[in-house]
Specification:
By secondary structure, the protein is mainly α. It has 15 helices and no strands. The longest helix has 31 residues.
Length: 272
């Protein structure tokens, strides 16, 4: 899963957030201002399922400051970071709706972080990555239905970008947007629907988009991830020698199996 992890950690949304969080003192102050608006936006949206000018009252901010944060000419908005890469399915919206979209991304980020941690430590393969991201979006939607209703149940744009990285060339932004919107709709139906049930509903769509060869070869990326983890682990010399012996024994056993299978293909299986 190294490729998906790398793409997700260097996605447009991730780089945008990193620039503001780890940039200059001015950038950090700007991020602090944004979080005040995000907090107010989430409070207003979750109280009524919509976002209006009450956000300014709750945040204590002004219209002019709001426009410097998320207005059409705001230099540091998430929409500006995406630029021409912003999927058409999102489109251009007014400042308050753009604020709600960014608030969705801001609120979703801890769920995204958990998904990335799962990729680092869990089973490899694109199908596992796709399922994990769907579960993250479903949990997020169940926890924040009012906020999502404020944007018409749109998925977080960062989740669309991440799932496109998982699928590779097998899906368009519109496909991914609709798939994740279905996840959100199912997860916000009123009664709390377990994320696993939501996942079951879209699993056929995931399977249709994850290349068959990827699903067939999922043990290989899992093995590669395990080896990379072993090589990067802090082991003392005896542990390293034991790990090397284990890998050599496994490799030799695999070679014997390959040789046996080759002979059987050439000569037919041996009689019992």
């Amino acid at each position: 899963m190294a490729d998906v992890l790398t793409e997700s950690r260097r996605s447009v949304a991730a780089r945008w957030r990193e620039r503001l969080l780890q940039g200059s003192r001015h950038g950090k102050r700007h991020w602090a201002t944004r979080t005040v608006y995000y907090t107010a936006c989430r409070e207003v949206a979750e109280a009524g399922g919509r976002v209006g000018r009450e956000v300014l009252d709750v945040s204590g901010g002004s219209t002019s400051t709001l426009y410097t944060v998320v207005g059409p000419r705001a230099r540091h908005s998430l929409a500006a970071a995406y630029g021409e890469e912003l999927p058409d399915c999102f489109g251009r919206v007014d400042a308050l709706t753009e604020l709600a979209r960014e608030t969705v991304v801001w609120t979703f980020w801890p769920y995204r972080d958990s998904w990335l941690q799962m990729l680092e430590s869990g089973p490899g393969g694109r199908m596992a990555a796709a399922e994990g991201l769907v579960l993250a979006v479903a949990d997020f939607a169940a926890d924040h239905p009012g906020l999502l209703r404020a944007t018409g149940l749109e998925p977080p744009v960062c989740a669309v970008e991440d799932l496109m990285a998982v699928f590779g060339r097998m899906a368009t932004a519109r496909d991914v947007f609709c798939l994740l919107q279905d996840v959100i709709i199912d997860a916000t139906r009123g009664l709390h629907v377990p994320a696993e049930v939501v996942l079951d509903g879209v699993r056929p769509k995931l399977e249709a988009r994850v290349p068959v060869v990827e699903r067939a070869n999922e043990p290989l990326p899992a093995l590669a991830d395990a080896v990379v983890g072993l090589l990067s682990a802090r082991l003392d010399p005896p542990q390293r020698r034991a790990a090397a012996d284990l890998l050599e024994a496994a490799a030799e056993a695999l070679r014997r199996t390959i040789r046996t299978e080759g002979r059987e293909r050439d000569n037919g299986p041996r009689a019992a």
